[in-house]
Amino acid sequence: MKTLSSYHDATVYLNGEFVPANEAKISIFDRGFVFGDGVYEVIPVYNGKLFRLKQHLERLDHSLINIRIAPPLSHDKWEQRLTTLIAKNLSNNTKEQSLYIQITRGVAPRDHKFPEKTPATIVAVSHPFTVVDPNLLTQGAAAITMEDLRWKCCNIKSISLLANILARQQALDSHADEALFLRDNHLTEGAASNVFIVENRSIITPPKSAELLPGITRDLVLELAAKNNIAHLEERISLQRAQQADEIWLTSSTKEIIPVTVLDDKSVANGQPGPLWARMLTLYQAFIHQ
Ligand code: PDD
Q1: How far apart are alpha carbons 286 and 269 in whole angstroms?
Q2: Are residues 171 and 54 in the same domain?
Q3: Mean per-residue pLDDT for 88-94?
Q4: Closest atom of ligand 1 to CA, residue 212
Q5: Residue whose CA is closest, atom 9 of ligand 1?
Q6: 171 and 242 both lie in a single domain
Q7: Residue whose CA is at the smallest distance from ligand 1 atom 6
Q8: Mutate to test the pocket of ligand 1, among 187, 193, 222, 251 (most ligand atoms within 8 A of CB)
Q9: How far, in Å, is the centroid of ligand 1 from the Cα of 194?
Q10: Per-residue pLDDT tens digits for 140-182
Q11: What mean pLDDT comes out for the span 197-220?
């Protein structure tokens, strides 16, 4: 269980300095707080090393450029600072962490127009990786579907996550684990995950577009499929198609690959995690630990 006090013991990176979390302070006029005006990344750390750092930093730059914040650090500088941060927070019993980066448009009087000459606020926090609930791997997850009420720039990793957290909470309130969004009756992604289905031994995921976040885990799953001669397609997935799928998976940096065995209260195929999911998770974990 993550407690606030365990977060408070950590060292965080704030605007160029490493400080104890309980001493790190941000103004109430920060535009991240006032407007949700910022972007973020979540990067897993395995065995003390940042996983897929290049891909995460490229996506971060893409998010920043899309919201017209100049990327404040080069990739080399990011790597130095994040590596230092991880080392400071690495404990003997866990070498796995989840690293969170947030960049906002900085501190300024509340006004919708961009402030001039205001430096971005840069925060990075790392804490021990929360191990995926083993029940999700043995029994699978339950998902519910719902209309995607988000904006049309879901490829930007925006900190404005109100629709996502409302959707996730609605899933939890219905005793499910994740909400899957639908646009025009097609699956886009989960509240905090990408989605795959399996049909006739092929894995299928919706193509990249402004309707979904280009997940780093999603891309790696497709890469591993290609390397291992597993048929894979990027295609739109109607709700009916998902209901008839042999398997459904969720992917994310913190949950890796999770099988969905219940969709809207009905079993997915035989209601058990599927064989292709088990194979892909093995390939994924072998890749992590190579
Ligand atoms: N979110 N789609 C959404 C909306 C997400 O929030 C996430 C991950 C993903 C998967 O992306 P990736 O494989 O790069 O983690 C897809 C992170 C983990 C979070 O918000 O905590």
Answers
A1: 27
A2: no
A3: 83
A4: 2
A5: 193
A6: yes
A7: 192
A8: 193
A9: 7
A10: 999 999 999 999 999 999 999 999 999 999 999 999 999 999 9
A11: 98
| Ligand 1 center–CA 92 separation, angstroms | 28
Alpha helices in the chain (DSSP H): 4-8, 31-35, 53-66, 75-89, 134-138, 162-173, 216-227, 239-243, 275-288
Lining ligand 1 with CB less than 6 A are 42, 164, 189, 192-194, 213, 215-218, 251-254
Question: CB–CB of 132/256 below 8 Å?
Answer: yes
Q: Is residue 8's pLDDT more than 90?
A: no
Q: Which two structure tokens, joined as six digits, stand for 54?
A: 């290049």
Distance 19 CA to ligand 1 centre (A): 27
Is the pLDDT reported for residue 2 higher than 70? no
**Would you place residue 10 in the very low, low, confident or very high pLDDT band (cuts 50, 70, 90)?**
very high
Is 143 found in the same domain as 119? no
* Residue 224 lies in domain: 134-288
pLDDT value, residue 260: 98
How crowded is residue 175: how many other Cβ atoms within 10 Å of its Cβ?
10
| Ligand 1 atom nearest to CA at 217 | 13
Per the structure, the count of domains in the chain is: 2
The pLDDT score that the predictor gives to residue 6 is 67
Looking up tokens 């989960």 gives 190
Q: What is the pLDDT of residue 4?
A: 64
The rounded distance, in Å, linking the Cα atoms of 42 and 211 is 19
